[in-house]
Amino acid sequence: MKSKADVVVIGGGSTGTSIAYHLAKLGADVVLVEKGYLGNGSTFRCATGIRQQFTDEANIKLMKYNIERWKKLSEELGYDINFKQTGYLFLATTEEEVEAFKQNIKLHNKFGAPTRLITPEEAKEIVPLLNADEFLAGQWNPTDGKANPFKTVFAFARKAKELGAEICEYTEVTDIIVENNEVKGVKTNRGTIKTDVVVNAANAWAPIINEMAGLDREFIPIKPYKHQLVKTEPIKEGQIEPLVCPPAWNDSYVIQDGEDGGILCGTGLEYGPTYDMTPTYDFLREVLKWATRIIPALKYVHVLRQWAGFYAKTPDSNPAIGKINYIDGFYIAAGFSGHGFMMAPGVGEAIAELIVKGKTHVPLDWEWYDPHRFERGELRSTAFQIG
Predict the structure, then answer these.
(1) DSSP string, 90-115
(2) CATH class given for the domain over 88-140+223-313
(3) How many CB atoms lie within 10 A of CB 220?
(4) What is the domain partition of the chain in residue ranges?
(5) Span 311-351, pLDDT tens digits
(6) What CATH number labels 7-45+150-222+316-373?
(7) What gap in Å lies between CA 127 and CA 56, rounded to an integer?
(8) At a CB cut-off of 8 Å and minimum separation 6, what does 106 contact?
């Protein structure tokens, strides 16, 4: 492990590896440290989805940009991450939801996201196994999609290393060296790295890193909440390609895995705050109730796996992204509240450009994601979250 670097990135998920790659691409000498193996926190446990369908300007704009990045990412990284634009389909069960969908669509269209309102019959054409009779309308964006989180993290890390970055797995941070409110280094279980810049991309563990730098853990109140998924045996490709979600049904969703054809099923049953990742029977019972109502044919499909991960949530479910004003050289990109994987390409690029160039061309609203908003009591509108 290097004893000196321009930047140390803490956290080896999709956000951290994206930041490391983009920094290395800009010529910075980078070391990424991860206390376990790459992706072992939230990234490898996510449901693979990538969407523009939020309910606020900042997230829509950022994700519109991210979709364009995702489309080119396999070619850029020299490795197929299996990004597919299979769409997101939200389904309304009441007239009130239909009206809300119409307002959402106006906002999406205003910022270039091609979302449209569709009939239950059209939804059935998109998802042949859908129980369309229970729904009044759909909110459909065919340019949303999914990608393989394992391949994405591997591709970011591999390309970062090709560009000169050092990736250190099983390297746990034990302290951040701060002198006169300036970053001076990072202490780990494998030694000390001298650096003037640290990026806290530890997501659910970000408050612990903040505390090491001398900040209060509640300065950015990120809490880990356990969310779970089940996966079924493979079914015929193309039967449930989009992510399908009736929000009124406990934010439950189903999506076909882009690799093997199994169906990933989630629901809005949340546990925490907790770092425990033990799957629960309560979740299994709840998720199957809703999944088989959305897609009745799933009653005849076997469940193969169940696992848990984290939504590292802030009070408004929007991430904290940017510079920490109290400590020169200390940056954060954490608290993504279930949206870190989909946002990773653009966020990594924006943070890297901010560090190296002092500004970014990425349409990331720094004020919206300002890490200092919580201490001022300035919560944003809650980011639209499912599962």
Answers:
(1) EEESSHHHHHHHHHHHHHHHHTT---
(2) alpha beta
(3) 24
(4) 7-45+150-222+316-373, 88-140+223-313
(5) 999 999 999 999 999 999 999 999 999 999 999 999 999 99
(6) 3.50.50.60
(7) 27
(8) none
